[in-house]
Amino acid sequence: MPDQSQPFRALISASNLYRRKLCPGSAKAEEGLPEFSPSAAQRQGTDLHAKEYDEESSRDELKAGEKRALEKNKRMTEDFIRQTFLSLEIADPGPCRVFKEREFFLSDESGDPVYPAVPGHTDEVHWYPQHKIVFVFDSKFGRKPVQKAEMNYQLRLYFVMVQDEIGGERIFCAIRQPYLKSPEDFHSVEYITSEHAEASRREILQIIAECSKPDAKRIPSIDACTYCRAQGTARCPESRQFLRQVSRQHILALHPPTLEAMATDIIAAENVIEAWYDRMQFIAETYPELLQHYGLGFTQYTDSVRNIAAAYGKLAPFFDSERNTSSYDGFLRFVTNCCKLSVPKMRNYLIKHHSMTEDDAYALIVRELGVQHEGEDPIEGALIFSKPKKRMLVKTTKERS
Ligand code: SF4
To answer: Is the distance from CB of 138 to CB of 101 less than 8 angstroms?
Structure first.
C-alpha cells in the first residue's frame, strides 16, 4: 500500500478537485503550505482504509464499531455488484479483477498525461472484462455526508482515469459511508464511456485551467474552505473575513442552553487570548526586534489631580460662571465640580465654555497647575501627578505573507 503519510501532495488531485472547482484560487493559496496534522478521526480513517486494503491483516485491535463498519462496506459492495448485474440481466458476470489502492493519472484529450500530474487514488476497482463493466468504490469513514455521487468530482475524475487506463463501457462509481444510515451510507452514479467520458474530461480540464490562471479567484464557502490549508492564513484574507462572518452567524443562531454549555470552552479561549496578549506584550517590550508586525503603541499618561481644592482655586477664573451663583443648584454644581475635578473634565469644560482647542486647553491646565511626572525630580507646587500607562500592543505593518 502506498505511503499515505508522505508529505508530497499534488496541487490538483481527485481528493481536492471539488475544492479547486469551488475556489480556483485555492491551488495557488495552498501551494507549499504544510499538511494539517491528522485529527483522531482522520487517523482512524487511515487505519480503516489500511485494514480494508489488506483483508488478511488482523482486526483484533479494532473496536466493535470499526469491525462493523468494514463488514458493512464489504456487504454493501457485494450487494451493489450483484444487484447491478441482476438489473442488467447478466446472469454470468465472468471473471473479475480487483485493484485496491490503485493510483491513476489524468490524461488530456490526446491521451498525454496532464502536467503537473493530476493523480487519483482509488480505494477499490472491480473490472469485469467480459461485459466491459467497471465498479469504482470510494470509502469515507467520516460521519459527515459527502457530496452525492452524481455531483461528486472525485468520482467523476476516477471515471475518466479508469476508462482511460482500464477501459470499460459502463463504469459505476460509488461512495461507501458505513458510519451513516441508509440511504446516506451508499450512493452511486453510472457513467457510460461513449456518452460521458469526453464531456467529463473537458469539464475537469477546464477546472484545472481556471486554477492555473495567475488571477484565479479565491471564493470562500464552507465546502471549499473546510479542508483548505490556506484557511485563516495570510494566503487567504477572504477566508478570514468569511470565518468571522460564519462564526458570528453560528453563535447568533445558538439556543441559550447551547450557549451556556459552551461557557467552559469560551473561558478557556479567553485565557488563551490573555496569555497570548501578555506574552506578545512582553516580547514587544523586551525584544521588539523579534516582532515584524506588532509593537507597542504610543505612551499615554494617567493624570491625577492631587489637591482638588487648590487646583480649583487656581482655575477659579475659568469656573466663575458656576461658582458665583447664590442658588442652591449652583452651589451643588460647584461642590460636584470640586469633588470630580479631573484633567479631562477641566479640559472639556475649557473647550466647551472658552472655545479652546484640546491642545490649548491642556496647555493652560498644565501651565496653571504644574505637572509632576513619575520618576522625575519633584516640582514644587505641582498639582497634577502624571504616570505613564502600560503601552498597548498594536499591529504595526502588513502581515507576513
Ligand atoms: S481558504 Fe477558502 S477561499 Fe481561501 S483559498 Fe482556501 S478554499 Fe479558497
So the answer is: no
Q: Is 220 in the pocket of ligand 1 (CB under 6 A)?
A: yes
CA of 28 to the centre of ligand 1 (A): 10
**106 ligand 1 Cβ < 6 A:** no
Going 58 to 64 to 68 to 69, the CA torsion angle's sign is: negative
Percentage helix, strand, coil for the chain under 3-state DSSP, each rounded to 5: 50, 15, 40
Q: Which range is least confidently modeled, 32-36, 57-61, 182-186, 276-280?
A: 32-36
Q: Are 23 and 219 in contact (CB under 8 A)?
A: yes
Helices H / strands E in the chain, number of each? 15, 12
Q: Which stretch of 120-129, 248-257, 308-317 has the lowest confidence by average pLDDT?
A: 308-317
Residue 165 DSSP symbol: H
pLDDT in tens, 2-18: 444 444 568 999 999 99
Q: Establish if 6 belongs to a structural domain.
A: no
26 and 175 assigned to the same domain: yes
**Full domain range(s) for residue 207:** 14-219
Residues 287 and 321 in one domain: no
CA 107 – CA 348 distance, rounded (Å)? 75
In terms of domains, do 171 and 288 share one? no
